[in-house]
Amino acid sequence: MRPKMLLLLLFVTQLLAAQSNTHKIQSEALGYTIGYTVVLPDGYDVSKTYPAIYLTDGPMVEKRSTFLTRAKAYQRDNKRPFVSVFVSHEQPGTGKTRRNYELLANPKYLKFLTQELVKTVERTYAVSASPNDRFLNGLSFGGLNALYIGLEDKGQTFGNIAALSPAIHPKKYLKDAYKNGEKLPIRFFVSSGDHDDNEVMTRKIRDVLKSRGYEMGYNEVPYAHTLKNWNANWLPMLEFFFGK
To answer: CA 159 to CA 157: how far, in whole Å?
Structure first.
């Protein structure tokens, strides 16, 4: 390979590497270390501030889903850059997961996200500290977690909640809590497959949020509780939150 080509390849590799940074944070709330990856938009400029979307099930969403491809294309086509934060549930060095413990309406995980991770990211990167510019995304039990955090945190940290195929059957009280509780300063995006995806309960959540007058997007796709389902909902979610 020619020297100029080698230099170009090295430059591109370094540029791409700079867009994705992996970190670990020692959580006082949970009592252990959690990994997360921050992906920066093209043209990231520290003199500006960007919205930030936090995604639980981080490694799966980052590496196995089409989120990054969709997000990159969306940001390019719509000139609306944002920072993506992929939060891992894996126990470092063991291959084991803490997913169910963390996502099933855990107040310690709530404290970790809202008081530790968000503040750490905002000290490190040029992201906005406004709840209107913070987005929390979760799928399946992550959707349950997102709805739980929205309810308990009352929109003080995350002004935008995305619950994809929220598996709230272990915590069915969430539906009635949104129905009967105070209306919160949150925008919601909810999605479901049309079969084998707990769609009956998800539609009830949609109806509750709609009846309370929340600004809400809803999308239903012809898939079950699978990656195809969630991949089909990334773009509608982005378009709802950031505009077409």
So the answer is: 6
- pLDDT, residue 130, reads 98
Question: Which letter does DSSP use for residue 171 in this model?
Answer: G
Helices of type H across the chain: 3-19, 58-63, 67-78, 99-103, 107-111, 118-124, 141-153, 173-180, 199-211, 227-231, 234-242
Structure tokens at 27: 């959580």
Q: How far apart are CA 87 and CA 66, in angstroms?
A: 16
User: CA 146 to CA 119: how far, in whole Å?
Assistant: 18
Nearest-angstrom CA–CA distance, 32 and 14: 31
Task: Determine whether 132 is exposed, middle or buried from the number of CB atoms within 10 Å of its CB (0-12, 13-18, 19+).
Answer: middle
pLDDT digit string, tens, across residues 181-191: 999 999 999 99
| β pairing state of 52-55 and 20-27 | unpaired
Write out the two tokens for 130: 């406004």
DSSP, res 133: G
CA dihedral 104, 175, 54, 102 (to 10 degrees): -10
Distance, CA of 36 to CA of 158 (rounded, Å): 18
* Gap between the Cα atoms of 36 and 47, Å rounded: 23
Q: What are phi and psi of 37, to 5 degrees?
A: -120, 135
Q: What is d(CA 74, CA 242) in angstroms, rounded to the nearest whole number?
A: 10
pLDDT digits over 25-50, tens only? Answer: 999 999 999 999 999 999 999 999 99
Phi, psi of 220 (to 5 degrees): -125, 135
| C-alpha–C-alpha distance, residues 52 and 133, integer Å | 6
* Residue corresponding to tokens 């509750």: 208
